[in-house]
Each structure stands twice: as C-alpha cells, then as structure tokens.
C-alpha cells in the first residue's frame, strides 16, 4: 500500500511540473485565435477573401479543443460581436441620412446600399462560425446549434441598432419595390447581398410588407370596382392576387411576387417551397379581397338596387363575398340607413318607393336566396308604404300598366294565387322541411318563398283592399273607353284572375259585361234614332264602385239628346229606367266662332257652359251655377278656366265672363289674357279610402260615446272595445279606424294628444 501511495505522489508531482508549459501554449493559442477572430477587424483584409480560417488557426484550435475552451471562445466571439455593432450603428445612421435626403428616384439605391452593407457584415461575421466553430464541433447537431445561436445573436444586435426612423424608411423602400413586376428587377448587380439580407430582416419586418400589400389590395378594389356594377370583378381580383401562371420565367400576380421574393433567399428554397410556406398568408390576402369588396358593395348596395338589373354581376360578387366574410349584419345596417335617408322621405313619389322596393326584393334574393336579408331590410319600407294613402292605388295601377315590372310579374307563367297576409302553420311532416336560419327574424316565414306581388299584397292584412281598388281603377278605365273597345281590359282581367282568383273579381266581370251590353243597347238605340249624337255606358249600380254625386242639368241640344236617348232605351227595355250621371262622360265639340273654329274634348259641364253662351255672350259664374244646378263652385271655376285658357271665354271684372268671338280683339288689348291654373277636382268614382270612411261612419256614435265617458283613449283600446261591443265591427282593421278618426279630426270633432291618444274636442 505504501508503494501505491508513493507512485501516485510521484505521478502528481510530474503533472504539476508539466502544467506551466501547457498553460503557456493555451494562452498563446487563445491570444492568436482572438486576434484573428476579432469582429472589429476585417479578417478578409488580413488573410485574403480566399483564406480559410480553419487552416490558419489549425494549431491554435487543436490546443483550445484539447483544453475544452472552444465553447468559451465561441461565447467570447458573440460578446465581441455585440460590442462591434457600434460600427454597424454608425453605418446604418449614415445610410438613413442619405436616404432621407435623396430624391425619390435616388431612394432605391440608398436603401439597396444599406442592405448590401448589412449583408457584408453578416458574411464577415458568420464566416468564422462556419469555418471555425462548426469544423471544431464534433457533431453536426452541435454545429447547427452554433449557427442558430449566432444568427439569433446577430439579429438581436442588428435590430437593436436600427433606429426608429428605419421603419418608415424601410416602408418607403418596400412601397417602391412593389412597383416592379418582380423584386429581382429592382436589385442591381452591384449589390449582390441585398436579396439575402432583405429575406433575413423580413423575419421581423414582414408585417410592414404585408400591410403594404393590404393597402394595395384596398386601392385595387377601389379603383376597379367603385361604382362599376355591369361586370363581375371578384374573379379578376383573385386572378390578380394568385397570378395566371408564369411569364418570362417569373410567376405572376401578388402571390408570384411575394413567393419570388422569399424564394430568392437562402433559407426558403425554390418557389414551390416558398408558396407552401406562405400559403396561410395568401389565404389572408384572398380573404382581405373578399372583405374589402364586400364592404365596398355594401356601401354601394342602394345604388345597385336602383340600377338593377344592370347591377346583377356586382350582386353575384357580393353573394360570394358574404359567404366568405359573413358581413351580413353590416350590410343590413347600412342598407336600412340608406333606405331611410334616401328613399323613405316625404318628397319621394310613392311609385318610386314601390319600384325601389321591388328592386330590393329581387336584388336581395340574388345575394341571399334564403330571404333572411330581405326580411330584415324590408320592414321599414313596408311600414312606410302602409302609412301612405296612395300605396294601394299605385300598386294596382302598376299591375295593369304595360311595361311596368309588376305587369311582367303578373303575367309570369309560374304565378300563384295571392293569399292574405297570415302566418301559415308549418308542416313539420314535410320531408323537405328545414329549420329557419339562425339569424332569421320573427316574420321570416311570411316572406319565405313569396313572389313580388304576394309581398306587396302582404303589406296589408287582407287582399280585399287590392280587389276593391282594382274595381275602382277598372271603373275609371272603362268609363274613359270610347267606341266600347274592351279587348285590352278583358285581357288584363283574365290575367288578374290568375293571381287574385275568379271569385274575388266577379264584380269586375259584371262591369265588363255591362259595357258589352251597353254596346249592344247603343246599337239598338241608334237603329231607332240614327241622328242622336250620344253614346251611353249603362252600368249595374250594385256592382260598380260608388260615384261621387254631382248634380248637373244639361241645357240645349245636350239635354234634348239625353232625353231622346232615354226614350229610345225605354222602348227597348221597358222594365228598366235610366238614372243619368251627367258629370261623367266626354264630349267631342267643334265650336264655330267668327274668325276661327275650335275643336276639343270637354266634360259635360264644360260643354253645358259653352252652350249657354250660345244664348247670350256674357254670364256671371253665379248665374251659370244657378242655370246648371251645380253645387260645387270649384268645379264651375275649373270649367270656366278651361275655356279661358283656350281663348274662347274672357274674364272680366265683377266675375263676368264673355264669349271671345274674335281673337284679334284679345290680341289688341293692353295686357295678355292670364293663364288660369286648374284646381284639383274630386274624382268621379269614389275611392276605396273614401268608401271605407263612409262605411265606418256608422261606428262614430260608439266612438263618440267612449271618448265622452272615458276620456282620451289610445287607438288600440278603441279598436278592441269596438270589436267587443259594436255590431258589425268585427273584421275591420286598425287602418280603417285610423282613417275614420283622421277624417273626423279634419272636421274638428276629435284631436290627437301628444301621447297618441284620441279625445273629443270640447
């Protein structure tokens, strides 16, 4: 044992004696290696660019490797590199100064110079890592880790020395770069390291590049799609983004531009690999195109509705964009706002509102075939149309007006009968039944699958109001017909039957038959009295709308012709008696004056007035009223204005009217005869609204009693009370009650309070 201890002691003594010599070798190797690897010094200038550091420092590296100091040397190298970034900072500041001072054409070379110099620093400082430390490392994993550690340290130092003004300068550089078809076209051959450097720093600054591409997408969409509705734009925008292949060996489109940029770097490999790497980014670009186009089309949607059907391609694009971006709520909010501001205004004609509503229905069914958007947008239009008194009349007139969109809709072959506005119970046993969409409103079922006419009729609770208005309109058109030409009206009625049903339009059938019978009777009368210049339309009073009572006594030859016609009719139909409506009809007249002849069409009242002037040249309006038994002074004034505007009568002081036999007498007067403005007259055929108010008059006593005993009451309370207590009131609508209250309010019997209640005027 003592021998073993002695041998160990001698061995330790020998090692200690050798240690000073090894330390000297290690110190010399460390000094030589650090001097050669100092980042502040350019080893290429010292040893030449073709030199290999691993050969120059082979002995030193072997010594340090044997001593286990290679990792320490690598750590020292990274620390010295961080300290050397002060040199890079000075160079970066100098380049940025030149960039900011340069003119626009010179900015690109300035930034290229900066990026190239950064690339020089990367190459100079990475070479020792590649040639020295990776060579010394015993395993590839270790060498790869050292390269990764170096890159992280280098980029951290580089980003630390970039001043805040580098970001706007780099953004301006990328904006210039985007003007080239390919990034490589902007990189000059004198800057070989620009591409690799750009790819390196884009790891941190790629949001700037992508933000610029987003801006370019927004500008592209605005330039090519703003107020352009006649062509589809979405497909062209997607092709612009994705490219259409390769031209001149370069991929096209934004995708080709970006993938070409990344494929030019050292880390991304070929173009296919770059596209695979950037696929999520390109998906976001494509989504942004759909989002911006959807927002633009949403802003212009009201104009697209007005321009329909020319805007159909743009609507197809909007449909696709909505499916990808789901901006339905924004579309509904914007369109409702535009409709309220631009359409639902007192100055807009009811016909224009109805036409726009029809276009809205068709446009939104293109965008959303399920009809959810239409249900959400249509409510304000429907409520506003219901509040207008002439809505029904305008809709009905459009139904039989050739060339009107509603007339085309009415004549469609797949038309169905119009039903009342009632919720239909869902048939859950139907195998085709589907639940409502998640964003469907409460009234969704009412508009689901309904055509345009059905949606217009459903504005009101029942289709009966339209049938009554159809009867009024048909009566007006039939009374205006000459020579009993009924072919057009018969065809219109047959078309209306396909939508409203034969039973609902039986009254219209009777009206047409009355004119057919009138034609036959007129032939019989003129066979007896061929010289009577009168053709009568004989109607069945119970099947025609009510006529406004306007008394009129026809004088002279008009009265004689009327009496002769009545006698001839009695001879043919002895069991019937005619009741004349002298305010209706048309008289074709030829008036022979001294110096001229006037031929015109006039009403019976106008014809009666001018015939009285055949007896004497001067009349007062009061005398004319008494002579003709006319009760409405406004109607009399209009008739006198009619002849005055034609130059047949002249107005004189003291309400005198004189026959103007000679035209030159008026021309020679000091002042020209004034042109009179005709006043609006009450329609000869009583309107549906007036008739409804007249029918509701029977309930006025009940309403008066309620308001007298109970005080002011809201409309709903009055309506429900009448439903319970007033016989015959059931089936009446709130609209009819409102019309009655408005009528009696105009007569000063009731008034509406600030809270919306009604009270008796005391």
TrEMBL record:
A GO CC term assigned to this protein in UniProt: anaphase-promoting complex
Keywords carried by this UniProt record: Cell cycle, Cell division, Mitosis, Ubl conjugation pathway
GO MF term list: ubiquitin protein ligase binding
Keyword match Cell inner membrane: no
Annotated InterPro entries: ANAPC2 (IPR044554), ANAPC2_C (IPR014786), Cullin-like_AB (IPR059120), Cullin_homology (IPR016158), Cullin_homology_sf (IPR036317), TPR_ANAPC2 (IPR057975), WH-like_DNA-bd_sf (IPR036388), WH_DNA-bd_sf (IPR036390)
The keyword Ubl conjugation belongs to this UniProt entry's keyword annotation: no
GO BP annotations listed: cell division; metaphase/anaphase transition of mitotic cell cycle; protein K11-linked ubiquitination; ubiquitin-dependent protein catabolic process
Region span, Disordered: 421-440
Residue ranges annotated for the Cullin family profile domain, each copy included: 420-643
Family matches, as Pfam families: ANAPC2 (PF08672), Cullin_AB (PF26557), TPR_ANAPC2 (PF25773)
Similarity comment: family membership: Belongs to the cullin family.
PANTHER family noted in UniProt: ANAPHASE-PROMOTING COMPLEX SUBUNIT 2 (PTHR45957)
Name the record gives this protein: Anaphase-promoting complex subunit 2
Organism name: Rhodotorula taiwanensis
